[in-house]
Specification:
Order of helices and strands: HHHHHHEEHEEH
Structural class: alpha+beta
Shape: elongated
Number of strands: 4
Strand content: 5-15%
Number of helices: 8
Helix content: 40-55%
Radius of gyration: 24 Å
Amino acid sequence: MLRKNVSISDAHLKLLEPLLKKHQGNLSAAMRDIIDFTGFVTEHMGSLETAKDLLKEKNQISEQIRNRIFGVTIPLTMFKWMLSNSRCSLPPSSEAIQIFAQHNDVNIYDISSLSKMINEGLSILNWPVMVSINSSNGQISIQITGMDPEINNFNAALIAMYMANNKNPQKINRLMIYPSSVCIQLSSASSHEEAMQSIYTHFCDNKEDKLHSQNDIILVRT
């Protein structure tokens, strides 16, 4: 076994903290992990520089895709104004579902995955909300928390539309609106139409509103 003295700066030690934690402070074990990984990258990519370049290129492509879909930026105050002047006007289902389009394979009964998917989808839009999800007695409870009631309400409607258009459609049983959050309780619907009608019933002032043609059912497969 070869023994060498290695000088490591504080900055590099900080980068090593996750590996040191993994190996309970054993620097030798951490270095072996690094060497093994370097060997793996070199074998499959040719060099560390090539791997870095490929990773940067992949990130740039992902960013371009996000920008093509979500590339319009408006001030928060204008966004709030638009929401306040479009009450009882729901977006097309296709637009609501597009927010979560990269995660169509999520099982909505897997609460952990569902919560992660929804929060990741909304985080791309940089909207100031946080979503928490629970399940009990066959019902799914979703809480949207944020500083602006209009934005909270809009996000609740989008999530409800996604859930209504799922392979296992969910209808709204109860909608609770608080100053800093919106809570919706969902359960299985007999059809996508029933699920969508529950959204109009709970989110629109005129409960006689019928399903608009632009909100044709789009199936999200799980």
